[in-house]
Amino acid sequence: MTQEQRFEDAQNSPKGDFEGFIPKEDSDIVTPGQSFAKLLPTREPIKHLLIGSPKAVTGTIHYLHIIGYANVGDWSQLLSTGNGDEVMSILIRQILV
User: Fold this and answer.
1) Where are the annotated segments for Disordered (predicted)?
2) Is the pLDDT of residue 50 over 60?
C-alpha cells in the first residue's frame, strides 16, 4: 500500500475511530479556551476535634505544637462535653484540595 492510499484510507475512515482521542466533558483535560481555574487547588476547611480528659487533650495540643502541626493558640478553649470529666477542643484549618 502506498503512502497516498494510506492517507486516503485515513481520510475516509469513520469518525468513531477517533472518539477515544476526543476528551469528554467531564475529563480533566484542558483544551484551549477552557478555564484553568478547574485545575487550581481550592481551599476547604477541615475540623480536628479532640475529646478526652483535660490532661489528654492539653497534652495532645502541646504535642501537635511541638511537631509543628498547629500552634497552641489555634485551638479553641477546653469545653465541657457534659460527660463527666471529659472536655473537647476544636481546630479548624484550611487545606488545599
Assistant:
1) 1-24
2) yes
Which residue shows C-alpha cell 497552641?
72
- The reported pTM is 0.58
In order, the DSSP letters of the chain are --HHHHHHHHHHS-GGGGGGGSPPTTSS---TTS-GGGTS--EEEEEEEEEE-HHHHHHHHHHHHHTTS--GGGSPPPEE-SSTT-EEEEEEEEEE-
> What whole-number distance in Å separates Cα of residue 31 and Cα of residue 36?
9
User: Nearest 10 degrees: CA dihedral of 47, 52, 56, 61?
Assistant: 10
- The total domain count for the chain is 1
- Count of Cβ atoms closer than 10 Å to residue 74 Cβ: 16
Residue 30, pLDDT above cutoff 90? no
